[in-house]
Specification:
Blueprint lengths: L1 H20 L6 H23 L3 H5 L10 E3 L2 E3 L2 H11 L3 E15 L4 E14 L4 E15 L2 E12 L1
Parallel strand pairs: 1-6
Antiparallel strand pairs: 1-2, 3-4, 4-5, 5-6
């Protein structure tokens, strides 16, 4: 009985892995197209962040799942609460320049993408002072109504 159960379990798991590996049927051409689309959206959002244009950044986010947004260990269940805090904190800032040193786009399906990046940001304050922080980002993008939107993010930084 143990032997039959073990063999059945192995067959079940093997079939599950085979099905899982065949579950995503994206051609290299489709993958490259998706990567270009998401990369373009990401860089538009980076430009908006450099200009502290939080309304433009928000156009690239869809919080319908309340998947959460994490910044330096603080968890925000809703995007609105996060963006309001960022707007308040940025009032002393004049501008920032963001340099992405490395990014990786992982296409998980034709509608979900994982995007990771790291680099540094130089923040110029209204007072004339400035500081630089190193950042580490991960974003989950989903294609919603034919547009790529961030549905979850994790951001860490240090000086």
């Amino acid at each position: 009985m143990k032997k039959t159960l073990t063999i059945s379990l192995i067959c079940f798991l093997t079939l599950g892995f085979i099905e899982h590996s065949n579950g995503q049927n994206i051609t290299n051409q489709q993958k490259l197209k998706i990567e270009k689309q998401v990369d373009s959206i990401f860089h538009i959002m980076v430009k908006a962040a450099e200009n502290l244009d939080y309304d433009k950044i928000s156009k690239g986010v869809d919080d319908r799942y309340n998947a959460g947004f994490i910044i330096n260990g603080s968890y925000f269940t809703q995007y609105d609460s996060l963006i309001n805090i960022l707007k308040t904190k940025s009032q002393g800032g004049a501008r920032q320049s963001i340099t992405v040193q490395k990014e990786k786009i992982t296409v998980l399906s034709d509608s979900v993408v994982l995007f990771t990046a790291f680099g540094y940001s130089k923040v110029d304050l209204s007072s004339g002072n400035s500081f630089t922080v190193k950042f580490f980002w991960s974003f989950v993008f989903e294609k919603i109504n034919n547009n790529w939107k961030v549905i979850q993010s994790h951001q860490s930084s240090n000086r």
